[in-house]
Design brief:
Elements: H1 2-14, E1 19-21, H2 22-39, H3 49-63, H4 66-71, H5 73-80, H6 84-90, H7 92-113, H8 127-131, H9 145-176, H10 178-190, H11 207-219, E2 229-230, E3 236-238, E4 241-243, E5 248-249, H12 253-257, H13 279-285, H14 299-316, E6 317-321, E7 332-335, E8 337-340, E9 345-351
Antiparallel strand pairs: 1-9, 2-5, 3-4, 6-9, 7-8
Helix pairs in contact: 1-2, 1-14, 2-9, 3-7, 6-7, 7-9, 9-10, 9-11, 9-14, 10-14
Length: about 375
């Protein structure tokens, strides 16, 4: 998988023009990785920037209504049951994603019926095949196409915006600090040429760059707010106190990550805080991917993808911010996921891998 991911990253870099929107660029890479490896059908967002723009515009519009949908469930049901022809008019890119999920879900359902599911060869099994695969000793799992499509859409949200946001905020802070930039460029250039075996585990990658990514996740956890959990009927004890069954409990990644007791100077981007002897203790306090039995199962792929992308970007290009933003720290709103107030625009000053002057690619936004 690592080799295929690297090819997508390099292809995206080949398509970069002299300036680009960072999150748009990272979303294209993450979207193609998710669709190709989990759905079995590449959306080709890297090569279809206009389709990608329509897709993200539709998703962003819906995400910005998320809190309304949570508190007024009827609104969510209206959206879910909206006919596809209406979606094509209102949200053409999002409709295309739904159609992709429908196609692959139907194929998986048919494979499951004919017992031709390629689960023994995991390279060919899709996310939808795995959804219907029972664990040993379990009965067969029956999911409707609509259920599978909803799971697929959730996977796109979990696997694209999370990593693209982390890479965008990391890139912004690297380019905002000459000292951080110097260390990242030095490490990235020493890490090339690409060696697939070095990328077998995200723990074996560039040390300082890994610290930059962790610091970006700390300051901008993709889902910053409270995710409620219901205490089991028998109740639970925590810190010497009993919590009755049925109680709703939650915690906020943002408030944990900005706790000055855990992270001194919490509002300052300091990658070096992850390079000390207390790093294991700090890592236990990072809950950007959740924790416990409900931790995101894609955490290792996410780190792998983020470090491979940033390493390639910094080893190939000399970059600068196109224009300074209003404040050292990026401003954002909580729309269930972090929604940046301003795009991070980046200018390419030099390309170490090619001498071509007339490159076409992702349009500036």
């Amino acid at each position: 998988m690592a080799g295929d991911i690297q090819k997508k990253i390099e292809h995206a870099c080949d398509r970069v023009s002299t300036n680009f929107d960072a999150q748009f660029f990272f979303r294209a890479i993450a979207g193609d990785i998710v669709s190709a490896h989990y759905f079995g059908e590449n959306m080709n967002l890297i090569d279809r920037p206009e389709y990608a723009r329509n897709l993200w515009d539709g998703i962003d519009t819906m995400v910005r209504q998320m809190w309304y949908s949570i508190h007024i469930p009827y609104l969510a049901s209206v959206l879910v049951n909206m006919p596809i022809f209406v979606l094509k008019i209102s949200f053409p890119g999002f409709a295309g994603l739904i159609e992709l999920c429908m196609r692959q879900a139907e194929k998986a359902i048919e494979r499951n019926k004919t017992k031709s599911t390629p689960l023994k060869n995991h390279n060919n099994a899709t996310f939808f095949d795995l959804l219907m695969a029972p664990l040993p000793g379990q009965e067969s799992i029956h999911l409707s196409r609509d259920d599978m499509v909803n799971h697929g859409l959730n996977l796109v949200g979990a696997g694209v915006d999370t990593v693209s946001l982390a890479m965008t905020t990391a890139l912004y802070h690297v380019l905002s600090s000459p000292e951080i930039q110097r260390q990242v460029y030095k490490e990235a250039q020493e890490a090339t040429p690409f060696d697939q075996h070095r990328f077998a585990s995200y723990g074996s990658l560039t040390i300082f760059q890994a610290a930059v990514i962790k610091e970006a996740l700390r300051m901008y956890p993709p889902v910053p707010g409270r995710l409620p959990r219901i205490v089991p009927p028998q109740g639970e004890s925590y810190d010497g106190k009993f919590i009755p069954g049925g109680t709703t409990v939650s915690m906020s990644p943002y408030t944990i990550h900005r706790d000055p007791v855990l992270f001194p100077e919490p509002n300052v981007f300091k990658p070096e805080r992850w390079l000390g002897d207390n790093t294991p203790e700090l890592e236990r306090a990072i809950i950007a991917f959740g924790g416990g039995s409900r931790m995101c199962p894609g955490i290792h792929l996410a780190y792998l993808e983020m470090q491979m992308t940033l390493t390639t970007l910094f080893s190939r290009f000399v970059l600068e911010l196109e224009s300074p933003l209003p404040s050292p720290e990026l401003d954002w709103k909580d729309h269930f996921v972090v929604d940046l107030d301003h795009p991070v625009k980046v200018r390419v000053l030099a390309d170490h891998w090619t001498s071509e002057q007339d490159r076409t690619g992702l349009p500036s936004c």
